[in-house]
Automatic annotation (TrEMBL):
<protein>
    <submittedName>
        <fullName>ABC transporter ATP-binding protein</fullName>
    </submittedName>
</protein>
<dbReference type="GO" id="GO:0016887">
    <property type="term" value="F:ATP hydrolysis activity"/>
</dbReference>
<dbReference type="InterPro" id="IPR003439">
    <property type="entry name" value="ABC_transporter-like_ATP-bd"/>
</dbReference>
<keyword id="KW-0813">Transport</keyword>
<keyword id="KW-0067">ATP-binding</keyword>
<dbReference type="InterPro" id="IPR027417">
    <property type="entry name" value="P-loop_NTPase"/>
</dbReference>
<keyword id="KW-0547">Nucleotide-binding</keyword>
<dbReference type="InterPro" id="IPR017871">
    <property type="entry name" value="ABC_transporter-like_CS"/>
</dbReference>
<dbReference type="Pfam" id="PF00005">
    <property type="entry name" value="ABC_tran"/>
</dbReference>
<dbReference type="InterPro" id="IPR003593">
    <property type="entry name" value="AAA+_ATPase"/>
</dbReference>
<comment type="similarity">
    <text>Belongs to the ABC transporter superfamily.</text>
</comment>
<dbReference type="InterPro" id="IPR050763">
    <property type="entry name" value="ABC_transporter_ATP-binding"/>
</dbReference>
<feature type="domain" description="ABC transporter">
    <location>
        <begin position="2"/>
        <end position="237"/>
    </location>
</feature>
<dbReference type="GO" id="GO:0005524">
    <property type="term" value="F:ATP binding"/>
</dbReference>
Length: 247
């Protein structure tokens, strides 16, 4: 479970102060898949970085499975699997397998656990043909698959994904979406941002909408559709922004 309580994040310099998040509060229940929606610059990545302990909130608090991101960051990191858009976190001079082994060791996994998990993920994401090739020669889609596998290598309870299907072809994107549904069945908690509304509608139980650092909507999709008398999520989102609504 993720709990966000009145979180504000400001970035200050000598010339100006920018409020990236402004008193944002919501929760992601255990075992649910929640979509994080917002235009570029809305504060989505800042929020995900704060949950992952990379940013400290200026005010407010964040808890992951009962652990505070500021007071117990190491415990939070053990619970999390994180993938930020455009940042694969991979080492070009290592093979895909060597990269995955390296991150597995960081999480204290045994050699047997690591081997089983790598083989399982390689099959799921169709990576067996290039598992022992150096990552530096990979296409964007191939790198993204390995990065997703890195995120999931330690079987985390809570998963944060920022634009996870960026760079994947249609087949790989569909495989990934099916895998998300499998993780949900396993009781995993997922929060992910996406610009692909069909993806959100297919995978998510509920959505969180953010605009200019403020919460616009939090709740399940069926309630949103009922309230807006529409199932066009893109239209609903743009309509809420046009009306200037905040939660």
């Amino acid at each position: 479970m993720i709990e966000i309580n009145e979180v504000t994040k400001k970035f200050s310099s000598k010339k100006e102060s920018i409020t990236a998040l402004n008193h944002v509060s919501f929760s992601v229940p255990e075992g649910q898949v929640v979509g994080l929606l917002g235009e570029n610059g809305a504060g989505k990545t800042t929020l995900l970085r704060a949950i992952s302990t990379l940013y400290t909130p200026t005010s407010g608090s964040i808890y992951v499975d009962g652990f505070s991101t500021t007071d117990n960051p190491n415990e939070v990191k053990k619970k999390l699997g994180v993938l930020f858009g455009g940042e694969t976190g991979l080492y070009d001079r290592l093979t895909a397998r060597e990269n995955l082994k390296y991150f597995a060791r960081l999480y204290g996994m045994s050699k047997h656990e690591t081997k089983v998990q790598i083989e399982d993920l390689a099959v799921k994401f169709g990576m067996k043909d290039y598992l022992d090739r150096k990552v530096g020669s990979f296409s964007k889609g191939m790198r993204q698959k390995v990065a997703i596998a890195r995120t999931l290598i330690h079987d985390p309870d809570v998963i944060l994904l920022d634009e996870p299907t960026t760079g994947l072809d249609i087949t790989s994107s569909n495989v990934f979406r099916q895998f998300i549904l499998q993780l949900k069945k396993q009781g995993k908690t997922l929060l992910f941002s996406s610009h692909i509304m069909e993806e959100v509608q297919t995978l998510c139980d509920s959505v969180v909408m953010i605009h200019k650092g403020q919460l616009v909507y939090e709740g399940n999709l069926e309630t949103l559709y009922h309230n807006e008398d529409s199932k066009d999520l893109n239209f609903i989102f743009m309509s809420k922004l046009a009306r200037g609504e905040t939660a």
